[in-house]
Write a structure and sequence with these properties.
By secondary structure, the chain is mainly α. The protein contains eleven helices and no strands. The mean pLDDT is 83.
Amino acid sequence: MFIGAGTAVNVVAVLVGSGAGILLGHRLPERTRTIVTDVLGLVTLLIAALSVSAVLDPVLTGAVGDQAPVLIVLGALLVGAIIGSLLRLEDRIAALGGRLQRRLAPADAPADRQRFIEGFLTASLLFCVGPLTILGSLTEGMGDGADQLVLKSVLDGFAAVAFAAAFGVGVMASALSVLVIQGTLTAAGALVGAFVPDPHLAALTATGGIVLAAVGLRLLAIRSVAVADLLPALIIAPALTQLVIVLR
């Protein structure tokens, strides 16, 4: 398979899955769509917990010490949240969703527009923040195959069915996010090689788990966390890991 095939398969999986979900969603009553969203929120929390467990990874604790991993994740989230809020990332992504909605469904009512934006934002974050996105894209870019992204594609395809049944065509638009983000990471892997050492990747994965937990809280309507504002933390976490390793 050519480099980038994993991302291409993932994009197709999201499009096909969301298309099936859109066809199915109109046939489901509101309470069914609500419980589907709740299930997605619970499963997202499960995925988040599995990712956060990377904070106990022996590779990370061996590199920075037993106490530092939690502080690295905390520091990354705090600094990342400040940067993200100052850059208004949540508002910018919501605005992008609004522009896509006006192009794809210009006649929709304001409530439908908000549903589109929520579907686009939530699906984009879920499909693009997880550890398989980062590790799989970098691995494929380095020429080690697309197996991880193919697995992710299957998972994303089924998730897209459920998401699109609840949120509609906004989930289909998230395929653009998958294409841009995974494509960029794959290109980075091809150009730079294995530039994220294992301890740094573990810190990034644990931090990403917290971000996914925030997505789960949104899906469960517990708290509407500005998840996109937390995204810079994914860059800060490896940087803080390197800083601790240097100072230790």
